Amino acid sequence: MEHGEAQQTFIIEGMSCASCAQNLETRLKKAPGVLEARVNFATAKAYVRYEPGRTSPERLQSVVDSAGYKVRQDTASAVFRVTDMTCASCASAIERSLAKTPGVHRADVNFAMGSVSVDFDPTVTRESGLVRAIENAGYKVARDEEAGSTPIDVDMAQLGRARRRMLWAWGFTIPIVIWMLPEMLFHVATFGHHVMNVGIVALASPVLFGPGLFTYRSAFKSVSHGGANMDVLIALGTLAAFVTGPLSFWLAIANYSGVASMIMAFHLTGRYFEARAKGRASEAIKKLLRLRAQTATLLVEGQEVSIPVDQVCVGDVMLVRPGEKVPTDGVVLEGESTVDESMATGESLPVPKGPGDEVIGATINQQGLLRVKAAKVGEDTFLAQVIKLVEEAQGTKVPVQEFADRVTAVFVPVVLVLAASTSALWLLMPERMRLILEAASPVIPWVQPDLGTVTLAVSATVAVLVIACPCALGLATPTALMVGSGLGAENGVLIRHGAAIQLLRESKTIVFDKTGTLTRGTPSVTDILAFSDTSETEVLALAAAVEQGSEHPLGRAVVAKAKDDPSLRMPAMEGFLAVAGKGVRAKVEGEDVILGTRAFLTDSGVDVQNLEDRLRALEEEGKTVTLVAAGTRALGAIALADTPKEDARDAVEELHRMGFETVMLTGDNWRTSRAMAKRLGVKRVLAEVLPADKASEVRRLQAEGRRVVMVGDGINDAPALAQADVGIAIGTGTDIAIASSDITLVRGDLTAVVSAINISRSTFRKIRENLAWAFSYNVVAIPIAVMGLLHPVVAEMAMAASSVSVVANATGLRRARVRPAYTIKQPKRAGT
Predict the structure, then answer these.
(1) Nearest to 200 by CA among 191, 211, 213
(2) Which ranges in 580-638 belong to alpha helices (H)?
């Protein structure tokens, strides 16, 4: 490389064909300062040699962006399980520590799941460095055997520990409550005040320094690493209350040791119910894990052999009897049956299966005996991919959570300042503060204005410390996201990024690709026109000969039509060339044969003006017309039609009722596109758009101030899916790993698009409700505690109830109705 030159390699996302690579290469070559540019479609990489003084990698990346593609950073991903996070402040501390680590691009900590998801540059840092960053923040990463456990095992272990701590705490606290009741109700100290004070201190000590020791350790660890989590507030509050017990032997101060024990018992009870509620929120993952088949019956040299499903290899032949689960993804070799695929698609109707059909692992064979050849095993199976997608979604964040994260990061320090201010306020202005208590005492039973100044100051300070709750803020969004993504998986809607939930709710324009999305994508030949002295058979033979080299659905339909006629002979062709969005050409028996659009033939020197009336009549019927020419002579035309999906019109009408503007984006001609749009009720049509320009059309809609949802097949529409605010890819069967989309629909019908929007709206509604409750709770409760109107025990009960109520509200999302009123019937297989 010469002096003053530099070279950069970019990994490109969104290229769907060689034309995309050519388009991007042309744009890069035209960019100022670029000396050489090569784009390799096969490796999805762009190699650029440039002058550093005239351009930079950032400017080159902007060229890629403007072409409708994305530069993917050379990153690796890792997910860690952290076993000792106790509140949302812990999550913030870990995120801050990871953000300071060189090479880390993104770090999302999900307090609700106890997981840490990190995107990082493997050339800068290693996973061991990420583990050190988490440990430097004061938290522990699960050991290999723990990390390999299923979420069911981990949740059960954590729930068991939380339950034991709670029961141990109440075992000592209940006697304290019984002992304190006579004094509270009748002012009678059983065995005398001195004995009672000693006894309560003795009973409270095992609670605080037994099951409560976990809370103190967490608080100490947080402070020693320069942070302050929720446990710091609980630790300070309970210790301040407990110390009053020993001090009461020498000072005129009320004994709050029993109160400290009750606060800790209620705190540990809240932790237990929070763990239970979080377990219900993550039920979707557990349900998916339970779906897996445990064993498979293989046919080996004619003999049946039962083995664990994780020992099945690709190519093994499995025997699946009625009522059994299909062990792993595969293809039916023999037999006919119906299979319950509701676990994958959410569709309750069984799906007919026969030789050549794909089956999904963990679905249930209902009727006939099937012989299935294993096609995917282990991490490559449909179920494994679904679990991975759901876990990824649950590990991401929704934009609305950003404000809550900023509040959580400073929450505990602010509360500590408020607690110190409360103590000073009561000690410096006791008479003024006592007036508030005197006014409230007839209404609030636990308010006692006649207590000593120090006792009232301690009570108010402890109440402030334990009523403040960043946990509710930290749980508000991730728990709703957990339930929403799980609900989506149960209904065949796989959400890859949490942000898509908010953006989908905010969008009002939805763009559909036509072929394969609104229509079945399997066109058939309807008309063959022959011009001059050429016969229809000759037109079809020439067209089929050329289309043998094409993978386009229209080309396959022409070849299929020719094969239906056993008397038709397809001549050999050579030199096949496809021009994206225009047509194909090849040499057939030494003559140039061209198939494609009017514009393509005109550019090739073929006069088609005198055919306009005949072609228009076909296109107004909603048919796509392909012209056939040899040399410069138009020989004929072939008309093809694609039928709409059964639910397409119903889905479009439902989207209009939901307030969406619908747009059809297609490479087909205007007349055919308008005819199909009118048939389906689509409001706006963007036709004759080349694949490479679809992203530009989406960008143009966004420039009008719209948030755009793009629905496509995830392959030809990859650049447009990536450009849209939300990309929804329609998958079929096991084909769900579509990297360009934010949401993948397992079902091929458009009912799933409506379901995805309903899930988005329901989930975001729960997120807003949770955040509103969490903020309002703290805004209202903390001032009341400062004024001394909250008993510390009542404050702790309210704090625990706040966290549990947020999670419980999120779990209510599972009852949301996400499917539209109309349903799609499965087609019947002949002979079943």
Answers:
(1) 191
(2) 598-603, 612-619
Alpha-carbon distance of 495 to 753, in angstroms, equals 12
- So what's the pLDDT on residue 709? 92
- The residues pairing with 579 across neighbouring beta strands, listed in sequence order, are 583
Residue 611: closest CA among 636, 583, 638, 582: 636
287 has a pLDDT exceeding 80: no
Contact assessment for residue 781 and residue 798, using Cβ atoms and an 8 Å cutoff: yes
- Residue of 650, 644, 660, 679 whose CA lies nearest to 820: 650
- Active site (annotated) includes residue 513: yes
**β-pair type (708-712, 509-513):** parallel
The one-character DSSP state at 464 is: H
Q: Give SS3 for 816.
A: coil
Q: Is residue 807 within 8 Å of residue 741, measured between CB atoms?
A: no
What is the distance between the alpha carbons of residues 204 and 238, in angstroms, rounded to a whole number? 10
Residue 610 per-residue DSSP state: G
What tens digit of pLDDT does each residue of 620-675 get? 777 888 899 988 888 889 998 877 888 889 999 999 999 999 999 888 778 878 88
- How far is the C-alpha of 346 from the C-alpha of 366, rounded, in Å? 17
What is the separation, in whole angstroms, between the first and last Cα of the chain? 68
Instruction: Tell which residue, 701, 111, 771, 660, has the closest CA to residue 404.
Output: 771
Q: Backbone phi, then psi, for 210, in 5-degree steps?
A: -110, -100
Q: Tens of pLDDT along 177-236? A: 888 777 665 565 666 678 888 888 899 899 999 999 988 888 887 777 776 666 777 888
Helix, strand, or coil here: 469?
coil
pLDDT at 549 over 50: yes
Fill in the DSSP letter of residue 378.
G
Contact 487, 394 (CB under 8 A): no
The closest of 444, 473, 470, 466 to 786, measured between CA atoms, is: 466
The predicted model gives 534-547 an average pLDDT of 89
Q: Report how far residue 349's alpha carbon sits from residue 455's, in angstroms, rounded to the nearest whole number.
A: 68
- Comparing 496 with 564, which gets the higher pLDDT? 564
pLDDT greater than 50 at residue 449: yes
Q: Residue 336, Cα to own-chain centre: how many angstroms?
A: 36
Catalytic residue among 513, 642, 650, 693: 513
Closest to 792 measured CA to CA, from 231, 241, 411, 169: 241
Comparing CA positions, the residue from 139, 164, 268, 255 lying closest to residue 212 is 268
Pull the structure tokens for residue 4.
Answer: 């003053």
Say how far apart CA 15 and CA 338 lie, in whole Å.
Answer: 38
Q: Is the dihedral of CA 573, 578, 584, 587 positive or negative?
A: negative
Token output for 286: 């557990």
The DSSP 8-state label assigned to residue 516 in this structure reads I
**Which residue in 667, 633, 616 sits closest to 539, CA to CA?**
633
For residue 645, the tally of other CB atoms under 10 A from its CB is 22
Residue that has been written with the tokens 């006697």 in this structure: 175
Please enumerate in sequence order all residues whose Cβ is within 8 A of that of 477, keeping only pairs 6 or more positions apart, or say none. 397, 398, 400, 401, 404, 767, 770, 771
Beta carbons of 584 and 578 less than 8 angstroms apart: yes
E strands in 616-751: 624-630, 633-641, 661-665, 684-686, 708-712, 726-730, 743-745
CA distance 624 to 164: 70
Among the listed residues 327, 272, 337, the one whose alpha carbon sits nearest the alpha carbon of residue 305: 327
